[in-house]
Amino acid sequence: MGYIFIGLTAVIFSTMEITGKLIVGVNPLQLNFLRFLIGGLFLVPFALRSMKYKKIKLKKEDFLYFVMTGFLCVVVSMSFFQLAVTYTKASTVAIIFSTNPVFTIILAYFVLKEKMNRGTVISVVLSIVGMVFILNPFGINSDMKGISFAFLSAVSFSIYAVIGKLRSERYGCMVLNCMTFLTGDIIMFFLMLISKMPVIINFIGTNENLRFMADIPIFYGISSVNIIPVMFLGIVVTGMGYMFYFLAMDKTSASMASMVFFIKPVLAPIFALIVLEETILANTTIGICFILIGSYFSVGWRGKSVLAKD
């Protein structure tokens, strides 16, 4: 069952960057706020049902934990992600963001004491080689600003994934995701209100590179033209995608679930070709092959652990 959740997550997450590219006329931070507002509200009835079933009563320490996960996921990681989609190609962002399992596996080893067998290590190495081929660092012409944002998003998401795993079994993925999204959105909302202060507008608004951080709209710009992709990004990609991702974690492990992002670089360029007509280059094809082989080692290996925390 865990592999089914991994497959569903991979397909859904592979549409994330493409959907973001289809939404025009919306501030990237505003879009980040809206997608997690929609996704969080979508998960509310499922979260309430789960809390009733598990007899969960949230305390002060629980809310403080959700403030941390909400800040890491919504405010930091996904804000960087939306900025990356704005400044470079959707397929490039998808590939770079997919490097986050490398950090997740390392952090899971130290924080969660999860074992790493030879298959996992080989998978990581082959997948990194594949991503290097796809990114083609010696010939890449993409905007370095977008690439930098994508890497920051990947690193911060891996931290969130491991911290989320610490209590995902206690809360369940529904409660964890719902509370993380809504708490993170509350923080985002206050930051958006602060961005409307005259002193902030005057200080940031004159800087072309930082203008997106000043006077961030809340609902302005949403129209009949972009409402469908915004809802899809909120309900399907954010609500359902993250739900399946943490279900995959619960059924397998943080390391295994992170293999979603070794499959994503294979699917995302194909979706980008079909929807956005972004060209798939020869180096991308070679990289995809390495990632596919790496995924096989990750899923199919049954050897003993080579790295384990006592």
From TrEMBL:
Family classification: Belongs to the EamA transporter family.
Annotated protein name in UniProt: DMT family transporter
Superkingdom, taxonomy of origin: Bacteria
Cell compartment(s), UniProt: Membrane
Keyword check for Transmembrane: yes
InterPro entries: AA-Vitamin_Transporters, EamA_dom, EmrE-like
Transmembrane regions listed in the UniProt entry: 33-51, 63-84, 90-112, 119-140, 146-163, 175-194, 218-247, 254-274, 280-299
The entry's keywords: Membrane, Transmembrane, Transmembrane helix
Boundaries of every EamA domain copy: 1-135, 144-298
Family annotation (SUPFAM superfamilies): Multidrug resistance efflux transporter EmrE (SSF103481)
Its membrane topology: Multi-pass membrane protein
